[in-house]
From TrEMBL, chain A:
InterPro entries: THDP-binding (IPR029061), Transketo_C/PFOR_II (IPR009014), Transketolase-like_Pyr-bd (IPR005475), Transketolase_C (IPR033248)
Lineage of source species: Bacteria, Bacillati, Actinomycetota, Actinomycetes, Micrococcales
Residue stretches making up the Transketolase-like pyrimidine-binding domain: 5-180
Name of the molecule in the record: Alpha-ketoacid dehydrogenase subunit beta
Record key words, sorted: Oxidoreductase, Thiamine pyrophosphate
PANTHER family: PYRUVATE DEHYDROGENASE E1 COMPONENT BETA SUBUNIT, PYRUVATE DEHYDROGENASE E1 COMPONENT SUBUNIT BETA
Cofactor(s) annotated in UniProt: thiamine diphosphate
GO MF entries: magnesium ion binding; oxidoreductase activity
A Pfam family the protein falls into: Transket_pyr
TrEMBL record, chain B:
Species for this entry: Brachybacterium vulturis
Domain Dehydrogenase E1 component: start-end pairs: 54-332
Family note: Belongs to the BCKDHA family.
Protein task: The branched-chain alpha-keto dehydrogenase complex catalyzes the overall conversion of alpha-keto acids to acyl-CoA and CO(2). It contains multiple copies of three enzymatic components: branched-chain alpha-keto acid decarboxylase (E1), lipoamide acyltransferase (E2) and lipoamide dehydrogenase (E3).
Cofactor names: thiamine diphosphate
InterPro entries: Alpha-ketoacid_DH_E1_comp, DH_E1, THDP-binding
PANTHER family reported for this sequence: 2-OXOISOVALERATE DEHYDROGENASE SUBUNIT ALPHA, MITOCHONDRIAL (PTHR43380:SF1)
Enzymatic reactions: N(6)-[(R)-lipoyl]-L-lysyl-[protein] + 3-methyl-2-oxobutanoate + H(+) = N(6)-[(R)-S(8)-2-methylpropanoyldihydrolipoyl]-L-lysyl-[protein] + CO2
GO biological process, any: branched-chain amino acid catabolic process
Keyword Oxidoreductase belongs to the record: yes
EC number: 1.2.4.4
GO molecular function: branched-chain 2-oxo acid dehydrogenase activity; magnesium ion binding
Keyword Oxidoreductase: yes
Protein name, as recorded: 2-oxoisovalerate dehydrogenase subunit alpha
């Protein structure tokens, strides 16, 4: 029994159903109550569940995360919203030095079932600090789960699973996909730790996550015109990483391309490629390729189309790994 | 309006019960023991120029909103309603004092001679920094709430170390009061007696959240806990804001340490052009504040002094027209940066890794360009 809805509506439904399912779930963040959030992800929830369960917090990210830690001590399951990717840094200390370590520090005595929601990535023509991809900072931190969502069904199921999970989970929501529509069946559950093979293919494995999953699928369709058959994997969980699914795919295709928006330097693509080299080097028929943001701060809005990996840049990398004519062959 | 009965540090705050003001809402002048000594130089000429400044920045602001609606700008944070707070401060300080502001202080930028292209380019998305900070003694506007307060304090500490007497000014909103940064900045300022002015425009909202989510007592009480004296001033009274700013600057320049001003005002428009304020505030409240429009109040005052208000309005319209025409022309002429410029200035020197990325980017974009074969170029 599924309904068509946007990713924003799917996330809203997941939050609503989670609030409904357990009295322990509370939402906290800036502008999430009366306004329903700047992206309206929490629209209507304060009216329905009251101001003590959908909390408009002071404008303080360290406070939002730190207070959530205290709530978790007391048995609650806070879902904290950071309004935009670039505003997570004032809360960084609480996340990496507190949230991620409490279970370990206390030998398992203290559970941190926090969900930290962050709209992330570019592509909406925003001003500074509104288009960042901070995932690598967090994926680097043991004790924290970092997951991304890519379509409405996945958004619904992953958000519910994150809230039910006893570990701290950072859910990165690709803001430029909030308005994309898809079927959502609320009875479908998600496994937080596994990647998804979204399309099977024979010639090369294309790995993406978050906002680039749609782009990767589009690239695979475009590649068909050239007779190239791409396998597309949505990593979904960035930490822990499901390296088995990726390795199994590369064993079949012998070729790997990884795409994400964040700068490539010390990034998720570094990690995925390293894991493949470690796990199935002998199956690689060519050097893996990556398509990422450049190693520069996110540029001003009019240049973001040049910065963000698009279909053409992905196909160019596919051509490189397959030894076909590509933009670098003359160089 | 917030009220407080028992203030622990009453002696450190002026204007706690009623924000300091010298213009009543009907435009008549009232005496104020704290501010009057700073108002000795106020004559009709000064009043007229303050009026013209406020009228022109209102027009600039409205034009920017219109340009956003026409798709020329990606976003704009309107300052309507806050003209007196910003002009009052901007006109009180010498240009050598260094301003660290957020995104909403475009009237201050205007006071500092920032041109229309410099002001609009960030909002059009052609650059991350519209103007040169050192050319205007004004840092590039801050988006991260509260971060600039630290920078102002550090700048002030450096000024102090160099034995100079210019000030740093940190401008921020009521929401910024909740950030650790802002509170840490006050600790530093107080501990080192840094020559810094904290200027908080309490416009009553942080996006949708009313000020009482950030502070349950008047904001002006917060700095007193750090040992920083503060003035709570009617932010819609340009004379009061100017006098309070002069007073604070004198205090700071005399080596007496930091000071804090809470300018009590109201944001009449949306938070930004993508905000819907009807979701979180009532028309009645807006009406109440519309009647307190800072421009109207000064106009009534000038009228009572017998100034030719009709002529003044005409002049304001004319100047506004010039300013807004300049904005339209500037926007139309704003160049889009060359894509490869995004690789510049990442580090102060070039390094091979980035040069390689730029080369690869160039090769890729060239590969997309329509093939220029000899046959087709004829
Ligand atoms: C660290 C950080 N968190 C959240 C935001 C998102 N945000 C932008 S403006 C704003 C409200 C700011 O309110 P206030 O400080 O009162 O200034 P005003 O906009 O009213 O001038 C918020 C929450 C941000 N820019 N930076």
């Amino acid at each position: 029994m599924s309904t068509t809805m946007t990713m924003a509506a799917a996330l809203n439904a997941a939050l609503r159903d989670s609030l409904e399912a357990s009295e322990d779930v509370v939402l906290i963040g800036e502008d999430i109550g009366t306004l329903g959030g700047v992206f309206r992800i929490t629209d209507g929830l304060k009216e329905r569940f009251g101001a003590s369960r959908v909390i408009d917090s002071p404008l303080a990210e360290s406070g939002i995360i730190g207070a959530s830690v205290g709530m978790a001590y007391r048995g609650m399951r806070p879902v904290s919203e950071i309004q935009f990717d670039g505003f997570v840094y004032p809360g960084f200390d609480q996340i990496v030095a507190q949230v991620a370590r409490l279970h370990y520090r206390t030998s398992g005595a203290v559970r941190m079932p926090l969900t930290i929601r962050i709209p992330f990535g570019g592509g909406i023509g925003a001003v500074e600090h509104h288009s960042e991809s901070p995932e690598a900072y967090f994926a680097h931190t043991p004790g924290l789960r970092v997951v991304t969502v890519a379509d409405p069904q996945d958004a619904y199921s992953t958000m519910r699973a994150a809230i039910e999970c006893d570990d701290p989970v950072m859910v990165l929501e690709p803001k430029r996909r909030y308005w994309s529509k898809g079927e959502v069946d609320t009875s479908v559950t998600a496994d937080l730790s596994s990647a998804r093979v979204l399309r099977e293919g024979r010639d090369a494995t294309l790995v993406a996550y978050g906002p680039l999953v749609v782009t990767a699928l589009e690239a695979a369709v475009a590649a068909e015109d050239d007779g190239i058959d791409l396998e597309v994997i949505d990593l979904r969980s960035l930490s822990p990483l499901d390296r088995d699914t990726v390795a199994a795919s590369v064993r079949r295709t012998g070729h790997l391309v990884v795409a994400h928006e964040a700068p490539g330097n010390v990034s998720l693509s570094s990690e995925v490629i390293t894991s493949v080299v470690e796990d199935c080097f002998a199956h690689l028929e060519a050097a893996p390729e990556r398509v990422t943001g450049f190693d520069i701060p996110y540029p001003p809005g009019v240049l973001e189309d040049h910065y963000l990996p698009g279909i053409d840049r992905i196909l160019d990398a596919v051509d490189r790994t397959l030894g076909r004519r590509n933009s670098r062959e003359a160089a | 309006m917030l009220t407080t009965t028992s203030a622990p540090d009453h002696d450190l705050v002026a204007g706690l019960d009623t924000p300091l003001h010298v213009l009543r809402e009907d435009g008549t002048r009232r005496p104020d023991a704290t501010l009057d000594p700073l108002l000795a130089d106020v004559d009709r000429e000064l009043l007229t120029s303050l009026y013209l400044d406020m009228a022109v920045v209102r027009a600039i602001d409205e034009e920017a909103v219109a340009l956003q609606r026409q798709g020329e700008l990606g976003l704009w944070p309107p300052l309507r309603g806050q003209e007196a707070a910003q002009i009052g401060l901007g006109r009180a300080l010498p240009e050598t004092d260094f301003l660290f502001t957020s995104y909403r202080e475009n009237a201050l930028a205007w006071c500092r001679g920032v041109g229309p292209a410099e002001m609009l380019s960030v909002w059009r998305g052609t650059t991350l920094s519209g103007w040169g900070p050192f050319a205007h003694h004004m840092a590039t506007p801050q988006v991260i709430i509260g971060a600039q307060t630290h920078h102002a304090v550090g700048y002030a500490m450096a000024t102090q170390a160099q034995g100079k007497d210019d000030l740093a000014v940190a401008c921020f909103g009521d929401g910024a009061l909740s950030q650790g940064d802002t509170n840490e900045a006050m600790v530093f300022a107080a501990s080192f007696q840094a020559p810094v002015l904290f200027f908080c425009q309490n416009n009553h909202y942080a996006i949708s959240e009313p000020v009482d989510v950030q502070a349950t007592v008047p904001i002006a009480l917060r700095p007193t806990g750090f040992g920083i004296p503060s003035l709570r001033v009617d932010g819609n009274d340009v004379l009061a804001v100017r006098a309070a700013s002069l007073l604070a600057a004198q205090h700071i320049r005399a080596g007496k340490g930091p000071m804090f001003i809470e300018a009590v005002t109201y944001r009449l428009g949306p938070h930004t052009t993508s905000d819907d304020p009807t979701r979180y505030r009532e028309e009645k409240e807006l009406e109440h504040w519309r009647r307190r429009c800072p421009l109207g109040r000064l106009e009534r005052h000038l009228e009572q002094l017998g100034a030719p208000v009709g002529e003044l309005r005409t002049e304001a319209e004319q100047r506004s027209q010039e300013a807004t025409t300049a904005m339209q022309e500037a926007v139309a002429a704003l160049p889009s940066p060359a894509p490869e410029s995004m690789f510049e200035n990442v580090l102060s020197t070039e390094h091979p890794g980035l040069l390689r990325q730029r080369e690869q980017f160039r090769a890729f974009t060239d590969s997309l360009a329509p093939e220029q074969t000899e046959g087709s170029s004829a």
